[in-house]
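Subject: Interface between my chains keeps coming out wrong

I've been trying for a while to get a sensible model of this assembly. When I model each chain on its own everything looks fine, but I need the whole thing in one frame so I can look at the contacts. Pasting all components below, labels as-is. Any help appreciated, I'm running out of ideas.
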Amino acid sequence: MNEFHFSFVDLLLSGLRLSTPLLFAALGGLLSERAGVANIALEGFLLVGAFSAAAVTYLSGNPWIGLSGALAAGAMIGLIFAMLTVYAKADHIVMGTALNLFVVGALPLFNKIFFGVTGSTPSLELDQRLSVWFLFFVAVALSPLIWFFLHKVPFGYHLRSSGENIEASKSLGISVKRTRLIAVILAGMVTALGGAFLSIAHGSQFSRGMSAGRGFIALAALILAGWRPIPVILTCILFGLADAAQIVLQSYPLPDGSTLPVQWIQMFPYIVTLVVLVGFVGKTEPPQAIAKND
Amino acid sequence: MKKLRFLAPFLGLLVALSACKKSDSTTESTAENKAAGAPFRVALVLDKGGKDDKSFNASAFLGASRAQKELGIELRDVEVNDDTQVEPTLKNFAKKGYDLVIAIGFTQQEALKKAAEANPNTHFALVDSVVDLPNVASLMFKEHQGSYLAGALAAMKSKSGVIGFIGGMDIPLIRRFELGYREGAKHVKNNIKVIVNYVGVTGEAWNNPTKAKELAVSQMGQKADVIFHAAGASGAGLFDAVEERTKSKAGENFYAIGVDSNQNWVKPGFVLTSMLKRVDVAVFDTIKAAKEGKFKTGRQDFGLQNAGIDLAMDEHNKALVDDWMKTELDKLKTDIVHSKITVTDYYLIKR
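Reply #2:
Try treating it as a single job with all components included. I did that and got this:
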């Protein structure tokens, strides 16, 4: 009597929606890490993007201005992260952790200043939000664009070279510091779009901690894709689909009428990661000069 | 050293920001009611959701603020963002000589136990969990009773015969909501189908609205037309999903049921009702009793019998709940209060 029905189309669409913020964050991470700046601050970048998009959209009434706000704030947080890692030469991992913690504490404060509460921004009406699918296509279109940028544009060469070998890059007259600074600012902007997706497209407000670990999942997707912009589309969609599949599995009835324990089902995306990583991908090569300072 | 000098402005900024956040909550929360001699001092320690979660913590803060206004107590509130900070915070308030320290949320249980053992002369109160010590009042809510009513109403309202439940983190407290909801729905309609999903198994599950939205979309895809959430701030995703689905499908209606605080106003017309957990009443009553020297320790239960648990009926959902539904609900309420109906308590079947 507990008949079970769901549609594959719904599952697919849900998976694509869930993969969008991952793809933005993974592409941001790619720009930063290919330039040699290890970036575990993606989580913080996402939150900054989510907050600024929701806040600016609410105050201006226009989601496009909100999206621009997210880009500006993303560039700003990217600039701060680059200053700390590239110029102040702080350890990338330590600074990434510090930045994440800082953002988690600072955003509720800004929220309080603008809206009088620490919990969330005011909710946005339907017509004040962007289409989920528009941003999904932006994310997918961004991947080949970034590939082109890295492989066909001189600055792209410099960026990759800064991430592979600092000394060799300098001997060619490339300013590694400046290249990395620009790369991390771009990373902040791209990742902030993922945050904007969460707060003004898929969701209708910023609430604290709403990225819920997506920055780290994106990092895993990036590593799984071997830091390459086209495969990263596939790994992010894989994670998104695995997430959507576990939603469906939660209500899948066992022969005795009960359902699988939630804890088991929630392992599903991670088991997929392990299987794919060990079984299909094998060893992935990170950029050689990652986390090394000039 | 060069590095450090470079970092100084950023560190300065960090310190300034964190300092101004702290002073901000201090100045705001410390009462000015020092008129009648030494004021009665109360500390409220909220959990991660924070006092603006429009839900559980917000309700606790509301009760304490009311006490501040009406009883002239001095109130300090703190939001603890890090689990390891709970115990030092509680102990610190006790050391400073606060008359009553109230901890909100089951996550503070262990810390409160240690703090209460170390400070036997301070009165403590804990919401949602039990600490069996002579100076602790444990304020417990019968969530299963309210969830039973929510389930009954969902079953009455549903046209498809399928309803949904979205839990936040998969823990016994939320299973208690789920079980009550199932029983209430089955009582009204024996063959009803209840689809159950949980957002996650970690604390992040309370703060993941877009994931909750996908759960709701999936449930509506499986024909659920009334969905109850017990998922904290993630619940915003359910409200969005219900609104979007209703507006995109002409002639079909989908409804959400809110939780803890009255959430009917969040999306008027789409929120069928909210299961109220009157943490505000519990907190206010406890402060009042303590101030009058009648502080009662031990376990205190808030349920339908003392309006600690209820369904929210106001102008926002007046058009959604028919009179016959209200009558049915009142009957069920009376039956539960008079023990004619016993709602299974998940806590009791598990231990």
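Reply #3:
Confirming on my end. Chain A touches chain B through 51 residues (CB under 8 Å).
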